[in-house]
Predict the structure.
Amino acid sequence: MRIPILKLYNYLLTTIQVELDDQTAIQFQDDLLNKIHETGAIGVVIDLTSVEIIDSYIAKILGDVVNMSELLGAKVVLTGIRPAVALTLIDLGIRLKGVPTALDLEQGIEKLRQELGE
Amino acid sequence: MNIAPNRVEIHNEWDIVRARQSGRERAKELGFGHVDQARIATAISELARNIYLYAKHGEIIISVIDGEKRGISIIAEDNGPGIRDLRKAMEDGYTTSGGLGAGLPGVKRLMDDFDIVSEEGQGTKITAKKYLR
Amino acid sequence: MEAAPVVTLINKRRSEIVVRWKEYMEERKDSSSIIDGRTIETTNDNFVDLIFDYLADNQSQDRLNNLMGRILALGWPLSYLTNGVHIFRRVVSTLIIESEMEKAVILDYFKAMEDLLDPIFNNLIEDATSTWENTVSIQKRALMELSAPLIPVMEYLAVMPLIGTIDTERAKLIMENLLEGVIAYRTEVVLIDITGVPVVDTMVAHHIIQAAEAVRLVGSECVLVGIRPEIAQTIVNLGIELGEFPTKSTLKKGIEYALELTNRAIVYKDKPSGLRL
């Protein structure tokens, strides 16, 4: 199962539409980092609107991918985290500190433009 | 409603997804709101992952609590290495797997009741319950 | 089963017992009671009759329980019923003592009377407790419903006023409301107004911080407003870390700050140049 990653000007957009199992998540991490490297993208929006469960393992992979992308020179914004998912993350003690968030894809792009001063 | 317990054997990563999906289904049937459904499914995911990471295989048993208070009960059982220091395993941020270490204390917060029995070399049995509000 | 001798005695002296019982009840009557005398009299009659019925045959226990339950449900004080049974016991005790029977017989009579009357007390207490528990749970639900609504104020800006004490159960509900609202109105900034929260202790602060963190996860931002001086004092004295999220003293200041955050401003039309707000 591969998650499609779209390129839009300097940005990469991806929306996760499937239930994330470990393999898919790891594969996504590889694919995104490669794509950033390939395209020289400076911003990434990962939209999680359709994701119903994020456990501590998947949260770690997402947090890692944000940090790794920054090492490659791309800013990442997570968008569309559902209320139920946010509440379970809080219960799990996961805050995703320092990871920018936005309500939806549109505001995510807006946030990237602000943060990157474009 | 079908009240026979659901047993999901955990052998590989896909079983983690199967276990939590089955738990979410059951929670929904019982009338849990969608936030609690997510809490229950996430707790199962954490427990199943513990089994997969530490014991290699084990079992998740999801059943209905049909007493004075209605709810859902999740039992995670394995014959793995057991937990040497239970107190430490229940501390926030403690991990031996390289994960975020949110595991067991997180499950405790997600659920209403939490009970753990573990013996080194014998295995671990965790019972977690959540009641309808 | 043959009736206990004490029951025979009680039945034989019934009219006498009733008269004395009513006298005592009259003495003990709460003078401030708003229940009119006629009602009290009728209820007294029913009550004492049913005690006799109950003593005569245990089948009447349901009817007695029923009456006591109805009296409680009408909002009469529990003490009316306990007094009633106590006085009955006292009247009968006096009769037994006055009977000048042998000490051992008197003790037997007493014991038999206790055995008969104790179940009434037990039932009464069970009944009253379950009524109270019921009331408490209804009130708890009412409090839940009073929970915080999220009020959209402007495009992308909403306020959640918190009122009353926040316990863990309520905090969960408030958080769910808050997050659902943020998504529904696409709120960029939420002002949580704690003007109506009487006490902010470590626990309450913890719940508010969690709410703010959850709001950040779904992609919005929280500003805590309505912080009174004494709340600022407790927060600092308790060493509570509010984390990185901003606080403002009033809702007004919070709104100004939120506008600034979202690159917006209030522009006044045709305002005389000398007058600035």
About this structure: Chain A has one domain: 11-102. The domain at 11-102 of chain A is CATH 3.30.750.24 (Transcription Regulator spoIIAA).
